[in-house]
Design brief:
4 helices, about 70 residues, about 60% helix
Length: about 70
């Protein structure tokens, strides 16, 4: 069964290295209205367009979503 993007991103929480991946994962964890069961690019991208947590978060999401698709199929 395919994990949601949110569950995929939780691998970056608690990471000792600082970076935009960790920042996005931490924000997603704290953002109660984030679509945590979403698996589609459009649903997550639409949400981030209106609730962007930091400059560059959409570019970070695009890159991480590509990794997600490669791993989760």
């Amino acid at each position: 069964m395919k994990r949601s993007f949110y569950h995929y991103m939780m691998r970056y929480r608690g990471d000792l290295r600082e970076g935009e991946e960790k920042e996005l994962a931490d924000w997603m964890f704290r953002e109660h209205s984030f679509p945590k069961q979403a698996t589609t690019y459009d649903e997550i991208s639409d949400y981030l367009e209106f609730h962007s947590p930091f400059p560059g978060s959409l570019a970070t999401f695009d890159q991480l979503y590509e990794y997600y698709v490669e791993e989760e199929g």
